[in-house]
Amino acid sequence: MDRKKTRTALLMERLRNRYRLVVMNDDTFEEKFSLRLTPMGLVILIGAVSIFMTVLVISLVAFTPLREYIPGYGSDLDTRKELIRLSVKTDSMESELEKKTIFLENIQHVLRGDIKVDSLLNKPDSSLRYTRLSFTPSAEDSALRKEMEGQDQYSLSGDDKGNKNAISGFFFFTPVKGVVTSSFSQEAEHYGVDIAAPENEAIKATLDGTVIFTGWSSETGYVIQVQHSNNLVSVYKHNSKLMKKTGQYVKAGEVIAIIGNSGEQTTGTHLHFELWYNGTAIDPQDYMVF
Q: What is the topology classification, in CATH, of domain 179-286?
């Protein structure tokens, strides 16, 4: 026990011994600098400097952007959030750029005269030829009117020829100008027309309405459907890209898709266009010229 105390006292005495650190000129032995210190003071000084440097390094890493350059220390969550934000912004910019490109192409078509003024605008007013007609209903006409009013006008299984008169006065906008490669045929179960047109041609809504479906199938590719007034639905198939989403309202002539060659039931770039009235397919060529 006495030996341990002696060793401890000897160690403490050595730590308290004073030493002088002198810096001298090697040629003239002139003293330039001197420093008095003890081993204990040197240990305390080195410890304090080490603690200060450790705190400084930790602060720089924790509270400055330098942490991003340390492998495995950067925040992966913040990085993913930033990547998602940039991705969404890029997609939005691409969509806006494509819309502007299509708009400029349409302007160029108009300036070059590719789009002709509809011939209906130049037709004479046919109402002048019927000013002398009498519209007083006869007894037979009144009886027939009562009979027709009693029938279910919304029956999907009945004859739609009379109901088609309700849409005969509509001005249908041609969805795309091209060549009809396959016409409407109930017998062949081909409930629309196929129109061949150049690649990247814009597909336009035939009437004002609301988009009720947008999707993709292996047979018909990208498909968009628009609900119009008078229970009329238009369908556009085999598109390469859809420009509208379900629930959006579109105006007649507004671009809703880009023509394509998607789906298995296709042999080239074209649009398959259908018109459905009261749940029954009707021939689009009865109402518009492609």
A: Glucose Permease (Domain IIA) (2.70.70)
